Amino acid sequence: MSTLTADCVRHPSEPAKFRCRQCNDNLCVACRAPSERDLCDICGQYRRDAAETERRVAAGLPTEPVRAKSRAGVYLIGLLVVLNLALSGYLLLWGKQEANEFAQDVVRDVQIVSRAVEESKDTQGRYPASLNAVLDRLPEASRDMVRSGVVRYRTDEDRTTFEVTIPLGPRGQDTSKP
Questions:
Q1: Confidence class of residue 1 from pLDDT cuts 50, 70 and 90?
Q2: How far is Cα 76 from Cα 80, in angstroms, rounded to an integer?
Q3: How far apart are CA 11 and CA 45, in angstroms?
Q4: Burial level of 59, CB count in 10 A (0-12/13-18/19+)?
Q5: CA-to-CA distance for 165 and 173, rounded, in angstroms?
Q6: 154 - beta bridge partners?
Q7: Sign of the dihedral through C-alpha 30, 34, 35, 41
Q8: Distance CA 21, CA 23 (A)
Q9: What is the pLDDT of residue 175?
Q10: DSSP one-letter code for 96
């Protein structure tokens, strides 16, 4: 057996008396695992824990201690789920009603402008080149929408067909164009 000339890695003021067979650290007698000759206390504890885990697995027991579930936590989570569902339902129903009213207003405005354009055909059956020709036939709210650019109007080259649109993007901007 060789003698160690190093100091203990955990107690530098003590001379090392053995080398741990698992971690290879030079250690003093105070660092030796109980009832072991060449195993430090940390590696010994690891081996005892591993042996206990193997014993529990072999016996069909859980390897980790099982904590009792807190009923208060379960009830709190359940309450939060119910509140979340209730709030979501309320917002969806309220938002749906508001969206329905908005969609009806948009359809109505498009119909008003389209009707005025239809009534403004010239003798050759061509539609107006712009909505300026029909502004006097529109209600004030529709006129404001045309002037602000919210209502879009296009005709083909021959002015035999037309299209009236109201983009549904933010603030009436066309979201299809970058």
A1: very low
A2: 6
A3: 19
A4: exposed
A5: 11
A6: 163
A7: negative
A8: 6
A9: 47
A10: H
3-state secondary structure of 125: coil
What Rg, from alpha-carbon coordinates, does the chain have? 42
* b/e per residue 6-16 (b: at least 16 CB within 10 A): eebebeeeeeb
Write down the pLDDT at residue 74.
79
Distance CA 103, CA 109 (A): 10
End-to-end Cα, the chain, rounded Å: 82
pLDDT (0 to 100) of residue 103: 76
Query: Which residues are CB-neighbours of 101 under 8 A, at least 6 positions away?
Result: none
**Which uninterrupted H or E stretch holds 18?**
strand 18-19
User: Which residue type occupies 47?
Assistant: R
Backbone phi and psi for residue 7, each to the nearest 5 degrees, phi listed first: -95, 165
Closest CA to 106 of 73, 142, 74: 142
Distance CA 41, CA 159 (A): 95
Q: Is the pLDDT of residue 43 over 90?
A: yes
> CA-CA distance, 111 to 104, in Å (whole number)?
11
Type of residue at 154? R
Nearest CA to 128 out of 155, 151, 147 is that of 155
3 falls in which pLDDT band (50, 70, 90)?
Answer: low
The helix (run of H) or strand (run of E) holding residue 153 is strand 152-155
| pLDDT tops 70 at residue 2 | no
